Amino acid sequence: MNINSETKVLCSVLCIVLFFLTPLYAFQKAEDFLLPSLQGGVYRLSDFKGKVVVINFWASWCRECIKEMPQLEELYRRYKDKGLVVIGINIDRSKQKAALMIKNLGISYPVLHDEKGDVFIKKYTVVGLPSTFIVDKEGRVVARLIGQQNLNSEEFIQTIERLLYQDNRG
Hints:
- The longest helix has 21 residues, at 5-25.
- The radius of gyration is 16 Å and the shape is globular.
- A 6-stranded mixed beta sheet has the order 1-8-7-4-5-6. Strands 2-3 form a two-stranded antiparallel sheet.
- The protein has a single domain (28-165), classed as Glutaredoxin (3-Layer(aba) Sandwich), CATH 3.40.30.
- The protein is of the alpha/beta class.
- The chain is built from 4 helices and 8 strands; from the N terminus they run αββββαβαβββα.
- It has helices spanning 5-25, 63-79, 95-105, 154-165; strands at residues 28-29, 34-36, 42-44, 52-58, 84-90, 111-113, 131-135, 140-146.
- A hairpin with a 4-residue loop joins β7 and β8 (140-146).
């Protein structure tokens, strides 16, 4: 594969912009949202105040997104009784593909549908998929991860555990 110099420059600029923009999200108040669930019901982020929330934006056509989902499911099952909430937000225009995907993967955490981009674009300005935001018990975004991550890594697990077990006063 031959990548021309314009593409290399564009990719480099994009990486630099993402590098400098990502810290801007850290410790900002997470934007509240209200979205329907693919499993039924409606969810609002503010319903989970006092809990650590992992928000994962994904699409059914995104291979990297699909690879992360079993790791998110494992994380959810391991820590849901300790105060962790995992929320998937699907951005497909049609919810049928996404609903089939979560059924086939055995996903039990809530998966919401943002077909109009009200949360994906307008509130969280997601620039790449998958994108994962970690929200602390105080409702602040403490991490923004763009692209496929190893959500089973020691570093990621330690971050989640630190947030779950820290004193709310700190």
